[in-house]
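Example S7 (structure tokens).
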């Protein structure tokens, strides 16, 4: 359904969002897809949003499950092409990129942890469903220079160096020009640090694994879920991509299939020890729309005041299409566990000239949050 000038009508927003949520499930239901379409989902809007949320292959799969691909009309060829391109990349390019990123490091005795993109993609039902733009590698800061030397000797070149607020070095390689390597020694910039996640502690808990055919290391399941949730909700990300929620759903389903279901009490313990219970709880509450079941008492979320208002909007079914309407500072405030961090956010706003009382009455007049998340989709 489209209104005048090609814009989606207000009535189409909710069914379109429901279609996007259904696509994020490990096993999308044909009935759910058809229900969204019958309810007035706007497929043009859905395709555009799927591209922005990095779930285009998932949307293609969901429509295929429901035998509804013909409903795409002129959008079909473009969405099919995107899905096919990611499938080919997963089969041909990703294994080469992972090998180029990891082997130079392991050859000199380093033990790189692969997190986000390729490590998560392995839990998706088939290759190509999880787009990525880079490979994220974690090593202790003390190994950073040595790692760069090894990578440089293998054809990687620095395109953005670490330093200042940058907690990683970004590299490129001519053999895999569409993918970057992000060599991390940190997870958050100092000025926007809102959790107590410690990269070296995480690295110390690494486990051996094979990623796209290359031996490497990964985070333990519980720590991985906390890191991914915190990554999705951190400042300048603000849960702006559904692929990050789909990641959680795929990991949980794969764990169940492997006979190693998630220990939610352990996930809560990790989140509590790293001061990110709220952001993890918010991510998991969103993941319920993608089929994840979590004991709600473990991750209670704010329900009152400014924080409660932000949570209600974050957990709305329409969030994938309305997320820019919630100012980033309000979401950051709501997600911060630490009271001192919340006070800091308010003080920054005061210093910027925004009047703040028990509630901020000027929210509607403030600019929308710019999507200034990192280039990475992984």
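Recovered sequence:
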């Amino acid at each position: 359904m489209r209104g005048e000038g090609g814009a989606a009508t207000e009535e189409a927003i909710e069914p379109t969002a429901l279609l996007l949520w259904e696509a994020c499930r490990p096993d999308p239901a044909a009935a759910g897809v058809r229900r969204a379409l019958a309810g007035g989902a706007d497929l043009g809007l859905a395709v555009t949003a799927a591209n922005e949320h990095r779930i285009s292959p998932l949307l293609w799969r969901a429509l295929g499950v429901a035998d509804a691909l013909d409903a795409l009309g002129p959008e079909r060829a473009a969405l099919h092409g995107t899905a096919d391109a990611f499938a080919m990349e997963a089969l041909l390019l990703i294994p080469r990129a992972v090998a180029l990123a990891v082997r130079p490091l392991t050859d000199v005795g380093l033990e790189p942890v692969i997190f986000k993109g390729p490590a998560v993609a392995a839990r998706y039902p088939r290759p190509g469903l999880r787009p990525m733009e880079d490979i994220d590698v974690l090593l202790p800061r003390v190994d950073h220079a040595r790692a760069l030397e090894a990578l440089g000797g293998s054809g990687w070149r620095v395109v953005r160096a670490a330093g200042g607020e940058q907690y990683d070095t970004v590299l490129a390689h001519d053999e895999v020009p569409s993918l970057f390597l992000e060599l991390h020694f940190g997870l958050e910039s100092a000025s926007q640090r809102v959790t107590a996640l410690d990269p070296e502690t995480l690295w110390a808990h690494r486990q051996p694994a094979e990623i796209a055919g290359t031996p490497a290391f990964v985070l333990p399941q519980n720590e991985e879920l906390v890191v991914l949730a915190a990554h999705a909700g951190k400042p300048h990300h603000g849960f702006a991509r559904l692929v990050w929620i789909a990641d959680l759903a795929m990991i949980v389903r794969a764990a169940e299939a492997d006979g190693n279901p998630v220990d939610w009490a352990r996930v809560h313990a990790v989140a509590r020890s790293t001061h990110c219970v709220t952001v993890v709880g918010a991510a998991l509450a969103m993941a319920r729309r993608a089929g994840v079941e979590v004991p709600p008492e473990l991750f209670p979320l704010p329900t009152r005041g400014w924080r409660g208002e932000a949570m209600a909007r974050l957990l709305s079914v329409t969030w994938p299409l309305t997320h820019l309407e919630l100012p980033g500072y309000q979401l950051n405030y709501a997600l911060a566990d630490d009271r001192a961090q919340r006070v800091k956010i308010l003080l920054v706003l005061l210093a910027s000239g925004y009047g703040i009382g028990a509630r901020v009455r000027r929210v509607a007049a403030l600019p929308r949050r710019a999507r200034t998340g990192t280039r990475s989709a992984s």
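Notes on this example. Residues 1-6, 356-377 have pLDDT under 50 and may be disordered.
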